[in-house]
């Protein structure tokens, strides 16, 4: 299954609402089972899918990995955030050097990042 931007937006909105409702543990910052259930139900209903709690967990792991990659890029001196284009910018040689050491960053080269 391929996640879409719209699915990510829906999941993000539902999880933010669940956090506000207290369905996230304060001690370990983990979602409570009720939050997963609401997220699964909302996504399945809106997009006519058959997702499970594991799909949500895996998507959250992907988000965390992407966040760490972006954080690494933006803490590197050769890279900057382009607010207008909503993407990470650097010259070609900087990208080549960075990707050689950090292959997972390749997907962010020239990629527009929405929210």
TrEMBL record:
InterPro entries: Myb/SANT-like_dom (IPR024752)
Highest taxon above the source species: Eukaryota
Record-annotated Myb/SANT-like domain positions: 2-98
Name the UniProt record assigns to this protein: Myb/SANT-like domain-containing protein
